[in-house]
Amino acid sequence: MATEVENGQDDAALLTAAARGSGGFEALVGRHAAALHGYFARRAPRAADDLLAEVWLQAYTARHAYDPARGPVRAWLFGVARNVLSAHWRRLAQESRGAPGEGAHGDPWEAVDNRLDASALAPALRRVLSELPEVERELLLLVAWEQLSPTEAAGALGIPAGTARSRLHRARARLRESAALASAGAPGLSGPTVPTSPTSPTSPTSPTSPTGRSSSEHPTGEQA
């Protein structure tokens, strides 16, 4: 259990304490498990529990490497989550081909798009999102779905904050342009808005140990 003192500390102080072997990591798990589980549940729902456990394992292992100058802990954790998810997708792509290392990718938008509730995203919005460059789309979804600030999203993606803001502005402009066309009656378009976070499954109980798996089920059935 996280102590009252730990609950009163900010994320950076908790991670610093964990790096020194003075506890603190469990409190971080409690604070961020639900948000990270939602990130996975919206992108790889059947593997979400295992991917979340892998994030905590990797984050705990790399706790000494955290650099506050590169962004807040929340952004760092989402960066770890993104790397874990990309590795998961690459692994699935390799398994489906039976040829490790060839043509692996980390942005299977079609698989994610197919999981989205049609009522949550208008067809035109789905189309515009699918046409965005991967980084711009991920920036938009991290801000809209995961409620990260543009600076936090930049940290998660490992790009400068200024670059993130300009790319986010460009992505939003594309959405506004599509909405304007729809309002003008352009055929085949229904007015899209910036996506809001779709409903995700309830987050499981946070693991009490960073090395403990939260689920014994392996995501071998996930489709890339």
UniProtKB/TrEMBL annotation:
The keyword Transcription regulation applies. The keyword Transcription applies. Gene3D superfamilies: 1.10.1740.10, Winged helix-like DNA-binding domain superfamily/Winged helix DNA-binding domain. Pfam families: Sigma70_r2, Sigma70_r4_2. InterPro entries: RNA_pol_sigma-70-like (IPR039425), RNA_pol_sigma-70_dom (IPR014284), RNA_pol_sigma70_r2 (IPR007627), RNA_pol_sigma70_r4_t2 (IPR013249), RNA_pol_sigma_r2 (IPR013325), RNA_pol_sigma_r3/r4-like (IPR013324), WH-like_DNA-bd_sf (IPR036388). It comes from the Bacteria. Residues 215-224 have a biased composition (Basic and acidic residues). Residues 28-92 form the RNA polymerase sigma-70 region domain. Residues 124-175 form the RNA polymerase sigma factor 70 region 4 type domain. NCBIfam families: sigma70-ECF. This is RNA polymerase sigma factor. It comes from Streptomyces endophyticus.
